[in-house]
Amino acid sequence: SFMIVGVVDKGHKAVLKPEDKLKISENEALEILKAASHGCRLDSFEGSHAIVNGAQTAWEMLHDEAMLTRITTSCTDLDNILGGGISCKEVTEIGGVPGIGKTQFGYLFAILDFCINLELLLLLRGNRNYRIQLAVNVQIPADYGGLGGKAIYIDTEGSFMVERAMQIAEACIKDMLEYDGLLRKDSQTRHLKMQPKELLGNIFYFRICSYTEQIAMINFLEKFVSEHKDVKVVIIDSITLHFRQDFDDMALRTRVLSGMALKLMKLAKTFSLAVVLLNQVTTKYSEGSFHLSLALGDSWSHACTNRVILYWNGNERYAYIDKSPSLRSASAPYSVLYNFAVLCNHASRKLGEI
Amino acid sequence: MANTQRNFMVPIEDLLIHDLYVLVALAEQQSDSERLKQGITQVLSIIDGQHQPWLNGMDLLEDAQQSKHLLSTGCERIDFLLQGGLREGHLTELVGPSSSGKTQVCLQVASNVAKEYSGSVVFFDTGNSFSPKRIEQIVGQLSDHSDIESNKLIEQVMNNIVCHPVFDIFTLLDVLHQLESKLRSQGGSKVRLLIVDSISSLITPILGGSGAQDTDLLVLCGESAGHALMISAGFLLKELARRHNLSAVVTNHMVSGEGGTLKPALGESWKSMPHVRLHLFRDSKSSICNMSILRHPYINLQLIIEDGWLTFEIERKYKILSSRGPPMDTKSKLEYRLKHWQPVASVGNNYLEQYAN
User: Fold this and answer.
1) Which residue of A lies nearest to B110 if distances are taken between CA atoms?
2) Beta-bridge mates of residue A131
3) Which residues form the RecA family profile domain (chain A) (predicted)?
4) Nearest to A62 among B133, B162, B253 (CB)
5) Taking CB atoms and an 8 Å limit, are B204 and A258 in contact across chains?
6) What local confidence, expressed as pLDDT, does residue A183 receive?
């Protein structure tokens, strides 16, 4: 049993005199002390210069942001309008009609975050002169310069095809070997012994069949990511499928969805992950005409930090930045190829499209 | 009352039930009642510390004129619409559909206030939408110094803006309480502007209904707790604004209302919470955003432009007519008024001169 010597309040007046003895166990006493110090922490920060505990100034955040890597989309036009790629602290929503390539983006981020960074890709995708110039200017990274991260792929539609992922992984490794040969001719060559299976082995795949499973999964993600600290991207394909039907209580649906959105935001910020949500489109009637808009409507539209909409313009696929706090609204074309997921438009004409 | 030989003591129940002044008078009669008088003084000082004393109109006017300044937003037209800018002591709400410019206005106002006024800006971010890069851009645009000087200026301004990510309502309340006790104890650090972007994403998960299927928060708190938390957050922001002379800004999103139109989220009880409500909307696919006033303590009734007065008179005429005809619903009245308010933001300089004469 413990004896409490005395308890004082903020004004340093004794509230409990030493004569009072509390018969409590050691664990309980520690818990009380922890709670008390938590409650009194306001006093302990008088010396701290921060206005609010846990806040950062904008200047510090600017420098932190410069050091954050971005996940490239492997298409330079797209990367340009995205400011370098998908940001690793934000929730990005990608929406489009079926068949436009949303799932391709999903595969891409799951694999690319492991091995390739932007400079490397520019190197490989650019023309010959650009390549040589970059080879001279670019700092050779200590390793392959990738994020070295794993990916979580949450599949609600069942559209993940392992064969396609394998295709992309093989193409990726081929590119890395090419880079290896190009850049390290002079310095010691490091032999790449990576197999496509290893790349696929870095993807954690979850199959979700109902909305309760989806809610459970999102709740579980925080624990999972804190145990697997090398996860760098979470892809959810597609986020809204299970909420479009079977929900009688619309108010409940709004609450659940907004709660989910907050949890994803918190996950992205706390663990510096890129969270990518793939969403379907639906038709909406407004101002006298039908037009396409993302599923789940206005209540879900504020649940992401950035939004990219994929659409057809004639025969070409385009991506448009619909919502972003720091990027301008812009469109960029892209294509889907058989030996790689996406590629810039100018090169696709030579290699042929899917 | 019990008398002992040495001290004049009063049982606690008497202290709580009887009138304090009567007790004081009684204590005065006894010669050795020092501790009682001390106790009464202490109780009175604790009560005064918790609650504001009575203020009369002159005190309030003096406070409004001397301590509650107008903060310019950095955008000329918004300043003109608001007759100077955001007022300290007010809670301003920006409501609008997705990507209508709410976060951009918040970032703009934050940059301008950090640059022009001494004191810091506190930004509570619920959607990871605080972009330091964008702030740097805006500050660069606002200042027109040479390159070397402007770098130092940017650093200084950005050090005045503090951002804290919040992902649930309890964290927000906790951090607001922290801020309040910090402001109360330290005279030095001054906060000019407080932004919560967006408060609706913190409140929508807990607002409304109860049931076995609900999220963990609601199951613990019960049905009306979400409502209570929303109101307490609003009151806390207003109290912070009033007592510490800062301006509070929150953003809200829109949900679908009757007939396919959009209405602000958070329901009827939140409507009367902010002092100023501004509605933002963007014409589809254009980059021009419009802002109109939904609610303001004093702007609607003033003769700021002739059009405004005209609207008021026509409303009165409608009121007379409607006693014979069908009742005029509030929606068409609001639409009519909104149509008249739109030109306010796009009025040019020559009109200003006319009005000044």
Assistant:
1) A58
2) none
3) 67-281
4) B133
5) yes
6) 57
Sign for the pseudo-dihedral over CA of A333, A301, B264, B295 = negative
Give the containing element (helix H, strand E) for A307. strand A306-313
Distance (Å, whole) CA B277 – CA B337: 15
Gap between the Cα atoms of B127 and B146, Å rounded: 34
Q: What is the pLDDT of residues B151-177, one digit of tens each?
A: 888 888 899 999 999 998 999 999 999
CA gap B224, A23 in Å, rounded: 38
Q: What is the mean pLDDT of chain B?
A: 74
User: Which among B38, B108, B128 is the top mutation candidate for probing chain A, defined by the most A β-carbons within 10 Å of its own β-carbon?
Assistant: B128
Model ipTM?
Answer: 0.75
Which domains, from first to last, does chain A contain?
Answer: 1-55 (no CATH), 71-351 (3.40.50.300)
Predicted TM-score (pTM) of this structure: 0.74
Does pLDDT of B341 surpass 50? no
A323: closest CA of chain B, how far (Å): 6
Distance in angstroms (rounded) separating the CA atoms of residues A46 and B8:
41
CB contact under 8 A, B255 and A298: yes
- Specify the long-range contacts of residues B286-294, CB closer than 8 Å, at least 24 apart: B287/A329, B289/B100, B289/B101, B290/B342, B290/B345, B291/B78, B291/B81, B291/B105, B291/B345, B292/B338, B292/B341, B292/B342, B292/B344, B292/B345, B293/B81, B293/B82, B293/B341, B294/B95
